[in-house]
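Question: Send over one sample?
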Amino acid sequence: MTALVLALAITAAQILLGIAMACAAYRAFRGPRAQDRILGLDALYLAGMLLLLTYGIQTGRTIFFEAALIIAVLGFAGTVALAKFLMRGEVIE
């Protein structure tokens, strides 16, 4: 019974994360300002990372956890660089 509940919960989480990715992609493409687009991209990489984590839990393979870690680090660095660019007009001082 608990394995079935876990499988259904992971599947439901994956569906909801897919919907969240669609909403974030809409915000990233149609955002009225650059700040909205950056937040949309931030939410998009975060939902993608979580989708990889849930898929890793579902399959039991560790490669998905490593890929999620790489996406998290690169997404954070990209968000910081874009925010710094919007604040100062340059990334490297």
Notes: The chain has a mean pLDDT of 92. Residues 2-88 form a domain with the Helix Hairpins fold (CATH 1.10.287). The chain has one domain: 2-88. The longest helix spans residues 2-30.
